[in-house]
Design a protein that fits this description.
By secondary structure, this protein is mostly helical. It has 17 helices and 9 strands. It has a 3-stranded antiparallel sheet, covered by helices on one side. Strand 5 and strand 6 form a beta hairpin.
Length: about 400
């Protein structure tokens, strides 16, 4: 004879051995206590005028109630409800944020709002999400936001990491993304290519920009960001490296580039850190750079700006955003395509590469890898006349009828 659990309970109840209602109450109390034990964040009561009981749920939401019992009800409801993708995302973030910089964590926040916040997918029970659900979500998000391949790869990576974390902590038994790759979704992505006119500063505009700088030196010699823009033209340095440059890094041999100015988007504070590739490099000194730096020092001495930083004004060190804004403002003044310091960096690299400089030399000067130099910084900047002369120089040596 097979007797199920319900029949057993009913038999014991009829025999007066147990009280089913009391058993149910006891089970409910046990489940509530289990939920409260799962909540690791502190519970506290406010002081002064605000005496409410407070805590923060794992999803980051702050809860405040007049009575502790009411607060516990919210906690119990949270932990007894099915865990959603959103819950597991924040669980992953809780640990991931400890492994990355503040700026990376800040980017996670902005990307979360962009990709997941208030979506049906984020509210789905994590245990019921299938491979098809993931495909539809990523495909729909790529289309809705017109994502390029890079952004699609980022979205895919976040989603995959959440499911990986859920597997590691035994919230799910199978990973619905086990057989998916980011490349599968690239066919739905939007190609976002900058035109050469936006990526570089070609000769005509460069001439106008340099003339504008000389004019500004005459009319407003104390405006230091202009000199920083010229150094970017002459060296291809990153804007953070320029902003972090100190006088003790300047010598007859060159400019020692060993630090970079950065901005913490969480704390809204500027700070000095290592260079992007965490390596120092020596950029060779030339007459043009030497004359520029001498001019900067003279102006800063005259105006009382001189300090440890190469580029400083009455407020101290000139920050990178000010230098970036300077070149954009000059472009607008001239009525030419607006560019940033990064365009000057690409232009400098393309010029030396077009003159036959080896990739390893160019990469060393700019402080990145040969692969990055080749893929993102090298452009053909020769005009049609130069190409015509090149073709002629090759063809004139051939024994053909003239």
């Amino acid at each position: 004879m097979n007797i199920n659990a319900n029949e057993t309970l009913q038999y014991l109840s009829n025999a007066g051995i147990i009280n089913i209602e009391q058993v149910q109450k006891d089970v409910e109390i046990m489940k509530k206590n289990e939920c409260l034990k799962m909540h690791k964040n502190p519970i506290w009561q406010g002081q002064g005028k605000d005496t409410r009981w407070k805590t923060r749920l794992p999803n980051g939401k702050m809860i405040a109630k007049k009575r502790k019992e009411d607060l516990e009800k919210v906690i119990i409801q949270y932990y007894s409800a099915p865990l959603t993708f959103d819950d597991l995302y924040h669980h992953w973030r809780k640990f991931q944020d400890q492994m990355v910089s503040d700026n990376t964590a800040y980017k996670y926040d902005t990307d979360y709002r962009r990709y997941y916040q208030d979506t049906k997918f984020a509210k789905m029970d994590i245990t019921k999400i299938t491979e098809e659900d993931v495909k539809v979500f990523i495909r729909t998000t790529v289309g809705r936001l017109t994502l390029c391949k890079s952004a699609c790869k980022t979205l895919f990576g976040y989603t995959k990491n959440v499911f990986k974390s859920a597997m590691m902590h035994h919230y799910i038994d199978e990973n619905p993304m086990q057989y998916l790759t980011a490349k599968f979704f690239y066919q739905y992505c939007t190609e976002k290519k900058k035109s050469q006119s936006k990526s570089l500063v070609l000769d005509k505009d460069m001439l106008l920009l340099c003339e504008q700088l000389q004019e500004d030196y005459k009319n407003q010699p104390e405006y230091i960001p202009s000199y920083a823009v010229e150094l970017a033209i002459l060296t291809g340095m990153r804007v953070g490296e320029i902003a972090a440059l100190t006088w003790d890094c300047i010598s007859e041999d060159g400019i020692l580039i060993n630090k970079s100015a950065k901005y913490n988007r969480k704390t809204n504070a500027y700070f000095i850190d290592e260079t992007k590739n965490k390596k120092e490099r020596l950029f060779p000194m030339c007459d043009e750079i030497s004359k520029l730096l001498a001019k900067v020092k003279k102006v800063e001495l005259q105006n009382g700006y001189i300090c440890e930083w190469v580029f400083a004004n009455e407020e101290g060190r000139v920050h990178a955003p000010v230098i970036s804004s300077c070149i954009k403002n000059k472009c607008r003044q001239l009525g030419i395509e607006e560019r940033g310091i990064h365009a000057l960096r690409k232009t400098f690299n393309s010029k030396i590469r077009n003159k036959g400089v080896a990739p390893i030399v160019a990469a060393t000067l700019l402080g990145h890898s040969v692969e990055v130099n080749q893929k993102y910084y090298t452009f053909d900047i020769t005009n049609n006349d130069e190409k015509r002369a090149l073709v002629s120089s090759i063809n004139e040596t051939l024994p053909l009828a003239r």
